[in-house]
Design brief:
Strand content: under 5%
Largest sheet: 2 strands, antiparallel
CATH architecture: Orthogonal Bundle
Distance between the termini: 19 Å
Structural class: mainly alpha
Strand order of the largest sheet: 1-2
Radius of gyration: 20 Å
CATH topology: ABC transporter involved in vitamin B12 uptake, BtuC
Helix content: over 70%
Number of helices: 14
Order of helices and strands: HHHHHHEHHHHHEHHH
Number of strands: 2
């Protein structure tokens, strides 16, 4: 990643494009110019064919909705995570932040009612975001260290509030379980709206283009007049707000807030974003790529579940995908620079 205040490669010329480099020929040219989603589309097709052959329950409408529902919470968080990674930042605290928001929501709702519980959950998400944003943009702490610290702190705080227990919450199931149109779950509809919104934000707005410029070269971005610190802070705020939304959906689905709800979520989010073509160095990445990365993970998890494969192997598969995606990204960067 490219932290605030360090020099990157060059300012990105368009959303999703890598830093400009001189055109060259050689064995690395095909790799550096390969569309990010092309391998993911092929992988999705291969997984779909494989699981369709292996399980009679895979290829049907209900299971398709199951896949999208499973991807919804991760996807709602992965959208702002893509924006952050494009700017050269990463947020590892999203898992514990989701747990914290959910616990705060259930705790306050039990004592003060559902509405104040929702307000408290959103405030909790923004609190985490403000702490992350302040440490990174004002004090200058590395975002990886910052969000690792808040990951641990808010996971612990959630356990303190809940006393290590799962907090039940009744009367708040509509957000997570209703199916308003064509039997499509509301979380899937919200997920689709979020994806479309961030697609427009990153591709067609000044904020989106500015994030690409900051990730590609923060020094050059500042010299052109961009307020890099404020923009990155906004990125963290968006992350916190949508983590809170995802937490509300999670609590609604379970009718409870668990202190384990967000365990491993940060790995799923980062895997989806990097698998979708975002660069850890910043300046590169798209919402469309992240969407396909999410679908690969969701289809893989769903298929392995239908085949009764131990859930531990799903973690192995997700970790392997992340390692391969990061390796591909680093190889592409190296070939671009040569």
């Amino acid at each position: 990643m490219t932290p605030v205040g360090t020099t990157g490669e060059a300012a990105a010329t368009e959303p999703g494009a890598p830093a400009p480099t001189a055109r060259k020929s050689g064995p690395g040219e095909l790799l550096t110019r390969l569309p990010d989603i092309a391998p993911l589309v092929l992988l999705l097709l291969a997984l779909g064919i494989f699981f369709s052959i292996k399980s009679e329950f895979f290829l049907n409408y209900d299971n398709f909705l199951n896949i999208l529902t499973a991807a919804a919470i991760t996807g709602i968080i992965a959208a702002p995570a893509t924006l952050l990674m494009v700017s050269g930042q990463v947020d590892l605290s999203v898992g514990s932040a989701l747990t914290f928001c959910g616990v705060v929501m259930a705790y306050v709702a039990d004592k003060q009612g559902i509405f104040l519980g929702i307000v408290a959950a959103v405030a909790a998400g923004l609190l985490v975001a403000c702490i992350n944003g302040t440490l990174v943009t004002v004090i200058g702490v590395n975002p990886l260290i910052t969000t690792l610290a808040t990951l641990a702190a808010f996971a612990g705080l959630a356990r303190v509030i809940a006393d290590g227990q799962t907090l039940p919450l009744n009367g708040f199931s509509t957000l997570g379980t209703s199916r308003p149109f064509f039997d499509i779950p509301l979380p899937v509809i919200i997920f689709a709206v979020v994806v479309i919104g961030f697609y427009v934000l990153m591709r067609y707005t000044v904020i989106g283009r500015s994030m690409y410029a900051i990730g590609a070269n923060p020094v050059a971005a500042r010299l052109t007049g961009l307020r890099t610190g404020r923009l990155i802070f906004i990125g963290f705020l968006l992350s916190g707000a949508f983590v809170a939304l995802a937490a509300l959906i999670n609590v609604s689905q379970l009718s409870a807030a668990s202190t384990q709800a967000g365990n491993g979520l940060e790995l799923s989010v980062i895997t989806a974003v990097v698998l979708g073509g975002a660069s850890l160095a910043g300046g590169r990445g798209t919402i469309v790529g992240t969407l396909f990365g999410l679908l690969v993970i969701a289809v893989l998890n769903n298929g392995l579940t239908l085949l009764s494969v131990n859930s531990f192997w799903q973690d192995v598969a997700r970790g392997t995908l992340l390692a391969l995606a990061v390796s591909f990204d680093q190889l592409r960067l190296r070939l671009t620079r040569e």
